[in-house]
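Entry type: protein chain
Record version: 2
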Amino acid sequence: MSPPDRKEADVRALLRQPRGVPVPADLAERALTQGERLLRRRRVRLALVWVTVLTALLALVVCSLVLDPWSEPPPTTSPAVGR
């Protein structure tokens, strides 16, 4: 027979130990409320991002309509007179 394996001895020792800490009875309810809270916060953040993007887009459209950037700029010098 081969000598006992160290890993096997570790596993046997773990199996001989008493069970772990008992789980609280309301753990599922607390996890559910925390998950709902996280989803709600994620939705609010996503809504704020969309509002920010749409506001920036609206500001860009209004700015481009008011400033009219595609037209020629007015001449900065007057033409020469008498030549």
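Comment: The CA atoms of residues 5 and 11 lie 10 Å apart.
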